Every structure is written in structure tokens, then in C-alpha cells.
């Protein structure tokens, strides 16, 4: 896991062995079973998670009880309820493991300390946030301007391996369509 994590960081920032050992000292490894819950609505969120192995979903439950998948996280991705993590608001998302997972856990305070002490990590986290923001913008535009088939095609283009790892019901929830509609358009 350590080599994988270092390679992940070094995609954006160059660090030496001493810096990596220091960075790693702030992270706590955690193994989670399928269906484990990382965050529930209303929780205080003090951590973000880097995924070394597995797949997770972040979802929101509408007033009618229907679940809407907001995002996924797979290997080399980060996940948390970021409004709660950064702004100290109660969590609005529910984050659950879709597979057995191995993650590295970073507290907000440790993240701040790393960014203050190591410009390489401040740069790394800034670039990760910029990429996430751009991806969310694309997803929002797709939801607002595309029909179900176009959203499904965009999903397959963006996440070519994810559709093999999660159920069609979960993909349908992410796309904002019914399972039946997904079955129909995926066969076109």
C-alpha cells in the first residue's frame, strides 16, 4: 500500500524518502468489510479517506426515501463528505463500502499541518481539489443537459471499469434513472 500511495502523490508532487515517511506518519491504515459505513447523515466528519483497494459510494437519501448516488471512490481516489469535513457542518452524505476496502485515513487537522509544513503536499491537495471540482462540474452539466442514454455513455467513458464492479441499480441511482431505464438503454 505504501508504494501505491507514494506513486499516487508523485503523480503531482515530487517528494524524497524522508518527506514520504513524514507524510505517511499522518495516515492511519484501515481495513473495512463490504457494507461497512464510513459516514452517516448527521455525523461529525473529521476524516477523509484515500482508497488503496476497493470501491465505495457516497449517497444522499431524498425525502421520498430514494437513494441518489453522488459519487464513487475506487483505488487512488479520495472520499469524504467534504462539506462536513471542511466546513464542520453535519454530514449530509452516507458513505458505504461496496467491496472490502483498504484505506488510509487522514484527519482534517493533520491535513492542515501537512499543507502548512510541506508545500509539496499543499500543491498536491490543491491539485486534487481542482480535479475533483472540474469532475463535479462535468457531472452536473451532464445531469442537467443530457438524456439518460447520453449520461450512461458518459459514465462508461469516464469510468470504464466501474460498471463491472457495481450493480445496475447503483449505476441507475448515480445516473438519476430507474433500473428499468438503464436496462433498456444499456442494450441499445
TrEMBL record:
UniProt cross-references to SUPFAM superfamilies, sorted A to Z: cAMP-binding domain-like (SSF51206)
Cyclic nucleotide-binding domain ranges (all copies): 30-116
One Pfam family named in its UniProt record: cNMP_binding
CDD domains per UniProt: CAP_ED (cd00038)
Record's protein name: Crp/Fnr family transcriptional regulator
